[in-house]
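Hello again, I could really use a second opinion on something today. I've been staring at a protein lately and its backbone has me curious. You're getting the sequence in one-letter code plus the fold written as tokens. I'd be grateful if you could look everything over and explain what you see. No rush at all, and the record is pasted right below:
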Amino acid sequence: MKKLDISFTGDPSLDLERIHEKLPNFLCLVSPDLKEMRHLVNGELSTQRGFSDREVEEQNIEDIFTPQAIENLRQLIENESKVDDFPETDKNRVRVVELEMKCKDESLIWTENQLSFLHDELGKLDSILLIARNVSARKIAMIRQELAIKILECLNVEEDVNETIKKIIELIRENLKIESVNFHIFEGPEEAKSFEGNEASSSIPIKGNEELLGFLQLNSNDEKTFDRETIKFFERIVDSIGITINKNRMRQSLSLKEEQLRHSQRLDSIGRLAGGIAHDFNNLLAAIIGYTEFITLGGGDISEEDKNEALDAIDSSAKRAAELTKQLLAFARKQELEFKVLDINKTFEEFKKILSMLIGKDKDIKLKFETGGNISPVKADKTQIEQVIMNLVVNARDAMIEGGIITVGVQNEIIEEDGIINHENIKAGNYVRISVSDNGTGIPENLIKNIFEPFFTTKDAGKGSGLGLSVVHGIIRQHGGHIAVESKVGEGTTFKILLPAFKQPETTSQPS
């Protein structure tokens, strides 16, 4: 299209073409089917795209917009055409849409496009006036903000760090259209040391607590791809990644230490049980040997009835010895959680003797069990629940310097409405309450809030690691339960555990 040659009186330099060049916007008329285009004003947008006015004037719609942008534009015009003949439709309406334009160097810029719908004398849609302006800075800032939120959500999911990094790379490539980025996370300190001092200028280090954890590699020297703002954006993302990696490693380290502690506690418990179990084994072996000698030496003088009774006694003693061995191994070995439906009353009945052995006979301490009838079953790992009770009973024993009574109770409990226990939300429902009470020294009120924190202990130096109750708390939380403590100095302490009652799945009876 040839521009009109108009000069203003008094100042020939202010001709229309020079005014066009100073305008920031790009203006054109397009037909409703987008097959025809008439350039009106090229403006600064053409320069920003890298084209001269002459080059722009030779371009059609496919040369200016991306295929996706053209599809979006076509869809919008089609929708507007459908409502254009309605009497209530505003003929002077303006629609705004953001579209990507092509640049000469094959990069893309975002434009905000205002569409005005023009009509002929009969009121029929004739053409669309399109006014475009460059909004890349605003659009990219918005995309980066949304991307940062997606990346933070990704980082908040607890999973393998390498899987998280893969997802972040995919998000960057999908949202920023940048393919040339890669993350490398070090396997350990040795790999980090080999990297120090050899950092490439195109890499951004990932750090956590000043420790080098890896780096982000920018595999391009294109200044447009990695401009100053893009580099700043990646630096902020890298900071968040460093914090998350450091936090995850600390969590993994703590989980490992907790697991090691649980294992060591089981081994410690074995030491306490050894004396009692050895005594039991001696009794059982004495019975087995005695009845075996009775049968062997009696010969034909033993009646069949006496022989059967002796064999039954041997069998019973051997089974009891096997059960003792099984219990000992259950405490000693390191194993995965095995959730099964448990009868807590039955579990405690089997566990009474072991708890009595743990208390010992050095102190004047009595162990009392208070269990209600019709206790609901729970779904739990038997060994873990036994470990929790052992830990609480041993703590109660240590708190009663001059002796006393340890009471272990089991009751059904109904929580009528949602609430809070020990600063944690608890849902309404049916629970089984396990309590361990003592009338020992008690815990000062100002210390109760810290009682479940790792490494916090009320015992004298060298007598406790401060991890026992934190492990107890962790086990109960793994079971979807809750634990709370009530205590008064000089009167004693009560730990209350709530485990969700297991509801048997309803079985539908088949019609006869």
